[in-house]
Structure prediction request, 251 residues.
Amino acid sequence: MSDLFDLTGKTAIVTGASTGLGKGMTLGLAEAGADILLVDHVSSDETLKEVKALGRKAEQLIIDLTMKDAVQAVVSKALETFNKIDILINNAGIIRRTPAIEFSEKDWDDVMNLNSRVVFFLTQAAARDMMKRKYGKVINIASLLSFQGGIIVPSYSASKGAVMQITKALANEWAKFGINVNAIAPGYMATNNTKALREDPVRSKAILDRIPAERWGTPDDIKGAAVFLASRASDYITGHVLAVDGGWLAR
Ligand code: NAP
Prediction:
């Protein structure tokens, strides 16, 4: 049974691997056997060390994914390092909180650019290698706000709605090439992304009161879903959005 989830010999790209959910999924893939290219804005030194300590090959690329030609640079680095791309986790994402009536064009464009445009074009660039080999596992990080509107985060909700639709659109086109495209929709997880919410006693209580599991999620909680969607265990699953939310959407 453990063979179903074994990633030995597989190579992965994880964006935003230095912290939060990206770090959790990077360590999950490494524990399952994968070698990994960690892509970050600033540095992923600590995660890099932890992956190597597990006996895996690992490299990092420090890059702003929104810069021109960044997606091609990521794919070139992965191919130079590992010769192939088996798994891509599109995790890097940002959020801006301002009431819709005051929302700026910059906050709209920055969020849409990283959270959905980069997701599409990085996946397109990686899929050129996957298609040649008729093998690939793409995992996009969506959100509960792929399904719901959220409060004072209009560009984030729009971008994560797009992530869900990109996932389905690519799954439709690429299943015949052996490429699975799925998404994980994390619930409310304790990371930098939700620091402001957790520090607001009113919002924090309202959120906790609605989570059936009665706690915030952690980067550890998302490991299993990532390994599942990266492994042979999910070969006949594509275009799916898997919520890891302590029951939030069931409420
Ligand atoms: P996080 O702690 O803020 O991590 C985001 C990661 O993205 C960081 O590693 C960051 O790198 C990287 N990043 C940001 N801008 C980048 C850029 N321009 N180029 C390259 N890398 C960049 O957030 P998180 O909570 O782990 O979120 C990870 C993903 O899960 C995001 O897509 C987020 O929307 C999604 N999500 C989170 C939650 C939650 O409750 N936390 C819920 C649903 C969905 P630096 O630190 O180096 O800037």
Observations:
- Helices lie at 20-31, 45-53, 70-82, 105-133, 154-174, 195-199, 201-210, 223-230.
- The chain has one domain: 2-190+218-245.
- The mean pLDDT is 97.
